[in-house]
Amino acid sequence: MSLGPVAVVGVGLMGGSLGLALAGRAGAREVRGVDPDPEALRVARAVGAISHAAESVEEAAAGAEAVFLAAPVPLLPDLARRALAASGPDCVVTDVGSAKTGVLAALGDAPRERFIGGHPVCGGERTGVVFARQELFQGATWFLTPEPDARPDLFERLHGLVAALGARPVAIDPDVHDRLMALVSHLPHVLAGALVNQAATTAPGGREALRSAGPSFVDLTRVAGSNPPLWADILLANRAAVLEAIRGFATGLADVEAAVERGDREWLLGFVGRAAEARARLRAAADAAPVAPARVVVALPNRPGALSEIATALGHAHINIEDLQLRPGPPGGEGELELVVDGDDAAREAVRLAAERGYRVRRA
Amino acid sequence: MSLGPVAVVGVGLMGGSLGLALAGRAGAREVRGVDPDPEALRVARAVGAISHAAESVEEAAAGAEAVFLAAPVPLLPDLARRALAASGPDCVVTDVGSAKTGVLAALGDAPRERFIGGHPVCGGERTGVVFARQELFQGATWFLTPEPDARPDLFERLHGLVAALGARPVAIDPDVHDRLMALVSHLPHVLAGALVNQAATTAPGGREALRSAGPSFVDLTRVAGSNPPLWADILLANRAAVLEAIRGFATGLADVEAAVERGDREWLLGFVGRAAEARARLRAAADAAPVAPARVVVALPNRPGALSEIATALGHAHINIEDLQLRPGPPGGEGELELVVDGDDAAREAVRLAAERGYRVRRA
């Protein structure tokens, strides 16, 4: 893949790794970096994460083909508006924030058809560009949240870029994304932090008693305390969904408490048993054998939202789009969308989902 | 170490591993096993975990030097009474249950000076004697809960046996043990189960959405759903401490909820920051460099409870007693207790703790 200039705004662990992967795996010859910290920029250049240090988002975005916003979550709305304003009509702007609805809601009258939210589900315990590595995204799920007005050609480009970085792009509705992340990432971080803090303050025999903690405590608290500013910001950026998840958890915990209190062994057996089944399903999904890729071709009407709708429907159905190609039709006419998915079952389901939504679709 | 007959009551993963380690590491030539499941006994004999299958606890305990109760927690009180009644005046009876106050409270007028509760902090994801292995206890903390009336010579024997099995014996007050385990083991299991159940029932995009769960969710739920009957029993056996831990956790979680709701970034920074500090302390403790053993000799008055008191004081102070030797004095007179601990600092602290309690004590 040959790629014009790209910009990375914020060169920490994530932005630095992005720069390395864009240069090393996606063939970007010019990676422009922006960061308020001159030392981060210096290191980023030294390790080859960026080829140019820009003075501002505007300078980095001008003439870029893609802008990746890898800054702290609270800064994303402003950075997105500035990057959209400063970049050309053919530039896709995306971010890597852990919550998606907020930044989309804050775009206002910016040219939002060029913004597609993103979220690579990966990271490292240690932050900063010195720990950046281009393999960071290898095999990771990378959520994309194209809205109906997102430009299909820009979605195609971003999808291809994400795949080139080694990640698995998954289109998802921003609201579904935020509720899912609240449940499987933000809530776990809250639980881990609350547990380690409770243990540190109330463990009988003093804090040092924790030395005798077994593997379950170590597992449960592994993510506790990582990067306080990042996590404070994420919890607040995804406030509504995080509150819903915490409240749901508190209700579930109160049920366990009540069962223990009344000595209800049957209920507790069911509780642990259901968890065993859920864990087994998770494992089965993770261990699923790889299958041969299969192709699906959808006739794409010349109207906004079609590609986003199809990609998101497949994302929600957990159909992995390995590759995606747009073939424009005659001006004003139908184009074609070719999708490569994981195996026959997925292709059959993709055909069903597209047909159900009124598209002409076939196996290829 | 040469060892007379020992009995293992319950030959699952734990009892089977005990049998293998007693024979393979502690030099037991006769390991008697008891189990209601004849197939478990057959496998235990086939893999060498036991040398004799006994028909009853009474048969196994008669003439044994030590009886290890490795049965489900609810059965322990009755088994302890039966083993104490059937065994000779020189036999130590212990258990490996995850909660300690209940079994001690249920001993009644049994010869409790021969019972010393135990709890090896280890296990495996898979249960049953077929997964038994003699290395199971290697490096594990093995809590011992000697009460004041526990016989010093039997405590010495059990301490030595546990060390011979490869574990690190740590004396602890039974109540402290139960509250500590509620916090660092039982509560984590409850949290993991509640989280995986919540995710399985409420994840947007359906259960399969969990495939996209990141590493924090995987970490948090690793212990979920393991062995429903075992865990239902543990939660009920340690009911009071588990309820206290759940309630403390619910309070902490409500604090996080309130901070997220009012958008209190400072509070959240403190919350995650404290967790980071607590985690760092845990790691520092785990990574502490090994030190040279040091010896302490305590003059042991001829009264019950002295050894239990000293061992428990050291256990609570996290001073690892690597070896322990009793040298009886003249009839009715003072004996000597020689302790090997981890390094000079620990020895100094052990001297202070013993002196503080009125014992004559010196470095050796």
Written overview of the protein:
With 364 residues, chain A is an alpha/beta fold. The first copy, chain A, has three domains: 6-172, NAD(P)-binding Rossmann-like Domain (Rossmann fold), CATH 3.40.50.720; 177-287, 6-phosphogluconate dehydrogenase C-terminal fold (Orthogonal Bundle), CATH 1.10.3660.10; 293-363, Alpha-Beta Plaits. Chain A has helices at 13-24, 38-46, 57-61, 76-86, 101-105, 152-164, 174-202, 215-221, 228-237, 239-261, 265-287, 306-316, 343-356, and strands at 6-9, 31-34, 52-53, 66-69, 92-95, 117-120, 141-145, 168-171, 293-300, 321-327, 335-342, 361-363. In chain A, β2, α2 and β3 form a beta-alpha-beta unit. The model of chain A has no long low-confidence stretch (mean pLDDT 90). At the A-B interface, α7, α8, α9, α10 and α11 of A face α7, α8, α9, α10 and α11 of B.
Give a brief outline of the structure.
With 364 residues, the first copy, chain A, is α/β, with parallel strands linked by helices. The first copy, chain A, has helices at residues 13-24, 38-46, 57-61, 76-86, 101-105, 152-164, 174-202, 215-221, 228-237, 239-261, 265-287, 306-316, 343-356, and strands at residues 6-9, 31-34, 52-53, 66-69, 92-95, 117-120, 141-145, 168-171, 293-300, 321-327, 335-342, 361-363.
